[in-house]
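=== RUN LOG ===
request id: a7f3
mode: sequence -> structure
chains: 1
length: 547
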Amino acid sequence: MDHDFLGLLTTAGEAQITRLQRAGTAIGSDPRQVGRELRRLVAGYVGESSYRHDPAVLELLRQLSGELAASQHADGTYDIGNLHSPPDTAFLVQDLCVIWELLKDDDQAVAATIHEILAKAGPALASGGVHTPNHRWEVSAAVARINHIQPDQRYVDRIDEWLAEGIDVGPDGIYSERSSIYASAVTNPSLLTIAWLLDRPELVEVVRRNLEATLHLLEPNGEVDVIASRRQDQFQIQDVWSYLLQYRELAILDGDGRFAAVAQGIERRGAGELGDFWAEVLERPELAAKLPPVTEPSTDFVQEFPSQSSVRIRRDTRTATIFGGTDFHDVPVIASGLSVNPTFFKLRKGDAILDSVRLAPQFFGTGHFHSEYLRRSSPSVVELGAEVAVPYYQPLPPERRAADGRYALTPDGRFYASMDFGQRPRDYRTLRTVITVAEVESGFDLTFELSESEAPYAIELCFRPGGVLSGVDEIDDSGNYQLASGTGVYTVGDDRIEFGPGSGTARVRMDSGERYRMLNGSLVPAGLRVYLTGRAPGVQRLEIRTV
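=== RESULT ===
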């Protein structure tokens, strides 16, 4: 048994309970949040902690479990953002099943309340629908847990029905949502739960592949690269802490020292809500077994992920991501569930972090460059490219004309108008962009080639707040700078990123595109933004070096 690990979870969990007791009735009314707080309280109440069998904790457990019972609909579901929601109910049910397992031999009153909630929820989850890919596995895991407590063949049949659709994972270990949040917090733990409770070892292999892939997406400071995500984390910073028990479980199962190294790193950094794992470890003590000897994952590689058209390059403390897999060209809308982040390159050297490089031509309001492809001409030379064609419309042919001048309201691709666009002849203005990213000895060369039309453009480099810029001119007081000539430098401690050469003093704004502007949307990244400008047709080279 790894007593240091148990001590870490206990300390983190006790801190959570202290915060909860201070909050008292201000915990909130969201059932999923209440369920999570209940799980935190139960871990302290039954575990070897300063809160073990604390009457005040027990009173709060009874209060919160009673509130959950009262707010459950007659059909067994809850309103959690969505009305009568099976998937949101499943998230809550997973926590409640852990709570029941820990309390069944301890406090009969709370356990009985939880048991009644589960009895009502089970049939709803065994017949209800979902919204997203990961919901299928969350619901299946919740149903597997209920079946473990209240066996019913309907539950197993429903799980098999969802699993028969196939797990949405690519050969490179990347799930269809390409999201670290949902891989770590939903899909991986759900598949492991089903594998554990229903003896489905083939599901462990799916998780193993995803954890293997994640090794190549890790930054030295524990962040996970999320540039390719189709969910909200594509614009966020995501830490690996939520993967802790997955890496621990498979490290112990396989004797994998690389996985052990990731788990040990999470424990050492102490980031995130580590107390949230306490209850699961109390339920499954085997997760607290000692880790196998650590083997540090490789820090020198070029790894391509075909399912999301990205390449990761790491050389010790220098990492880079090249991305060409947005959904923008296949599905030309801005919507949840699509990859629309226009960042195509990012780089870091130690604590100096270049969070994004983006390109925005001012070309008929079409917005940022989004690559249509990613091609490698050598292990670390990558080409990205896109062609944008914008039409001018000719008069309708005679047979399509209407005497009253009323025509179908149709999309042009950037906007709508009563023009029956699909029936009109058209001629086009075209802008073709090719960006070559080539690794060199101390960094990268980015070559921009824009052709076929005249258009000004801006290149945006956004650095993580916390460092110092030099060699650039401040444009305004909101974090905007321009590199007019020479070389710019971004410094954090002993780590430096140098970039250049500058391209003159012309000012070209970053155009997010008409789709964003219509609703006052913005794609301005947070940080220190440095702009270089140019004009198509032409070729421009940007040298980025790390020191």
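=== NOTES ===
The first helix runs from residue 3 to 23.
The chain has a mean pLDDT of 95.
=== END ===
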